[in-house]
């Protein structure tokens, strides 16, 4: 498989590289001759490596407005996916509780609503943070990371408990086996 530098470039990529070179010229990083040489080389470039070589000695330009919008849209999609994944687990618990409520006669107060609220309140709050007038992507990421860290020690401690129980069982078996073998001698 060819490396990314060996991949063929499109006309759009050549045009973007030429525009970047012109931006560097406008910033005073290139002379008139360098501008002409590099733009001509950009339009005749065939691979990504050739285009990268043209700007290798130049600093990276700030992202354009379109690139910033694309990055925000991608970040929003990623956060939306993570939020829906978390809500999916809670909605499963809500369905189980509703089934229990129905199986017990479906009479009285609909108590599974509390499970639904525990799922919906964070989902609505983070949905507002995600799609509201002032998106707060960092706050959502911090909250998701806090939940992940909070849940990880619980799983680790459960594994430790299971490991301790296994160890105790193995010790009891070893002691029992040694009594048996000691009694037969």
Question: What does this protein look like?
Answer:
By secondary structure, the chain is mainly alpha-helical. Helices cover 77% and strands 0% of the residues. It is built from 6 helices and no strands. It has helices at residues 11-26, 32-44, 48-55, 65-103, 113-131, 137-184. Helix 1 (11-26) packs antiparallel against helix 2 and helix 4 (65-103) packs antiparallel against helix 5 (113-131). The longest helix is centred in the last third of the chain and has 48 residues, at 137-184. The termini are far apart.
Topology:
Layout: H1 11-26, H2 32-44, H3 48-55, H4 65-103, H5 113-131, H6 137-184
Helix content: over 70%
- The SS-based structural class is mainly alpha
Number of strands: 0
Mean pLDDT across all residues, rounded? 83
Q: State Rg.
A: 31 Å
Number of H- or I-type helical stretches: 6
The largest pleated sheet is described as: none
- Along the chain, the helix and strand elements come as HHHHHH
Q: What's the shape?
A: elongated
Unreliably modeled segments: none
The fraction of residues in strands falls at under 5%
Distance between the termini: 68 Å
């Amino acid at each position: 498989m060819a490396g990314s530098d060996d991949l063929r470039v499109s006309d759009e990529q050549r045009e973007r590289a030429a525009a970047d070179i012109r931006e560097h010229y406008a910033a005073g990083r290139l002379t008139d001759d360098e501008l002409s040489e590099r733009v001509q080389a950009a339009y005749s470039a065939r691979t990504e490596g050739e285009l990268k070589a043209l700007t290798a000695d130049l600093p990276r330009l700030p992202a354009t407005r379109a690139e910033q919008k694309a990055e925000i849209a991608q970040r929003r999609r990623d956060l939306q996916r993570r939020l829906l994944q978390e809500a999916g687990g809670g909605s499963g618990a809500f369905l189980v509780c509703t089934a229990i409520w129905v199986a017990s006669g479906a009479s009285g107060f609909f108590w599974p609503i509390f499970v639904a609220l525990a799922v919906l309140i964070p989902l609505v709050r983070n949905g507002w943070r995600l799609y509201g007038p002032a998106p707060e992507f960092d706050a959502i990421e911090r909250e998701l990371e806090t939940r992940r860290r909070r849940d990880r020690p619980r799983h680790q401690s459960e594994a430790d408990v299971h490991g301790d129980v296994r160890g105790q069982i193995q010790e009891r078996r070893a002691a029992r086996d040694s009594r048996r073998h000691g009694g037969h001698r």
